[in-house]
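User: Predict the structure for this protein chain, please.
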Amino acid sequence: MKRLVLPALAGFLLSMGLVSTSQAVEILRWERLPLAVPLVVGQERVIFIDRNMRIGVPESIGSHLRVQSAGGAIYLRASEPIPPSRLQLQDAESGALILLDITAEPAKAGQPALEPVRIVEGDGPPSRAADPAGTSAGEEEPRDTASAAARRATPVPVVLTRYAAQNLYAPLRTVEPVAGIGRVNLRRNLALDTLLLTLPVRAQALAAWRLEDQWVTAVKLTNTSARWLNLDPRALQGDFVAAAFQHATLGPAGQSADTTVVYLVTRGHGLAESLLPKVAPIDAAVNLPPAAAAGQAEGGGARDEE
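Assistant: Here is the predicted structure, written as C-alpha cells:
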C-alpha cells in the first residue's frame, strides 16, 4: 500500500502543474569511436558539445540535412530519409575531430521525440605521473618531459604553417590536432597593398592561428595580370619569421591557377604590425616658409613657360 502513495502523489502534483519536468538528455562519451546519432525525418535533434565546432557534411546528403550551430550546440534536421552517413565535427581551436554516424528514418505512429544528446570527453589513458613505480634515481628527466620536448622539436613556424595549410586545403578528417593552437581574430579589411609591391597581385587575409608567441596568417593571392608569375618569398615586404607559398607560380587572371595562398609567420604580434607602412605622396612645399614656398611655385611656373 505504501508503494502506491508516492506515484499517486507525483501524478497529482504533475497534473496540478506544481512539479516541472525536464527533457532527458542522452550522454555520449567520445572515445575515438564513431558515435551513433539516429534522426527522425522532420524532427530537429540537438547535440550539446560546449565547444566551437566546424561541421563537415557529405555532399550526398547536404540537400536533405539542415545543420546549424550556435553557442556550443548543433541542430540537425533531416527533410528526407538518410542512409547511414558520417559527419565530422572539428574543434575550431585544437583541430580535434569527433565522428558522428547518423541515419534518418520516417517517424512512426506514437514514436516519442528523440531526446537531445550531450557529447563528453572519454576517459583518457592513465597518466605516467600516477605510476606507483615512480621515476628511478638514474633517470635524468621524466618520460613525459622528454616526450614533450620531442614533440616541440619541430619548429613552431613549421607546425603553424602545416596546420594552416591542412585547414585550408585538406579534408577535415586529415587535419592533425595540435595542442596549444588557437584561432585568432583577423581584420577582414586589412590593407595588404605593400605585401608584394613588385607583382601584380591582389592580397586578402583569410584566417590566422597562434601557437605560443607566434602567429601564422593565411593570405590569398590572386593574379591580376595576363601572364604567369613566379612567387619568391624574398619579394615579400614585411617583418616575418617565415613565409611559404602553397604554389610556386600563379597562372594568368581568369584561369583556375590564378589564385594561391601564402602563409606568413610573425612573432609577438599579428600580421598588421608586421607590414610596411604605406608611403603617401609628399609635397615638398608643405614645411617651407611661405615666402620660399611662393618662390618655389613661381620658379616652377617660369620653367613651365620656358
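The chain is about 15% helix and 30% strand.
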